[in-house]
Amino acid sequence: MKLVFSSPQDVIDNIGKKLGPTEWLEIDQDRIDMFAKATGDFQWIHVDPEKAKDGPFGRTIAHGYLTMSLINMFLPDMFEAQGAKMGVNYGSDRTRFPVPVPVGSRVRGVAELVNGEIIGEGAVQTTVRVSIEVEGSSKPGCVSDVIGRFYF
């Protein structure tokens, strides 16, 4: 389910609301390689399929921060500040990577609005706990409490 809010009070009224799930997204080697190029992280467990076959996961895995970065892709499908003049990422808390995300896996976002706080006239700070689920796994690939600020 998507939460569309148009005021700080709408956020407060929806604390505890479950969001998502989003559509599934396949993690292919091209995405992993592009992330490696963007960040300079060329560790073999991510970018060397031949060597990774004999590694601990049997194939390459997505970078943890690649998995985390998908939050920015999935969040707008679950949470929208309608009519806001501006929204900014303020940070994140308690980010974890409980399981690796192997190449070829499908992931999706689910979330919960865990907190909202009015921080000024027409402004609200939100905390959304986002989990990046890995299809077939009982644990997520990433969980992070992302903090945003919206100005109406």
Descriptive notes:
This protein has 152 residues and is of the alpha+beta class. The protein has one domain (3-151): Thiol Ester Dehydrase, Chain A. It is 23% helix and 38% strand. It is built from six helices and eight strands. The protein has helices at 8-13, 29-39, 44-47, 49-52, 64-69, 71-74, and strands spanning 3-5, 18-19, 25-26, 79-81, 86-96, 106-120, 123-134, 142-151. Strands 2, 3, 5, 6, 7 and 8 form a six-stranded antiparallel beta sheet that branches. The chain has a two-stranded parallel ribbon with strand order 1-4. A hairpin with a 7-residue loop joins strand 7 and strand 8 (142-151). The two termini are 23 Å apart. 31% of the residues are buried.
Distance between the termini: 23 Å
Give the % helix.
10-25%
Mean pLDDT: 98
Shape descriptor: elongated
The CATH H-level superfamily is: Hotdog Thioesterase
Tell me the fraction of residues in β-strands, as a range: 35-45%
Count of helical regions: 6
Going by CATH, the architecture would be: Roll
Notable traits:
6-stranded antiparallel β-sheet; alpha+beta; elongated; 152 residues; Thiol Ester Dehydrase, Chain A
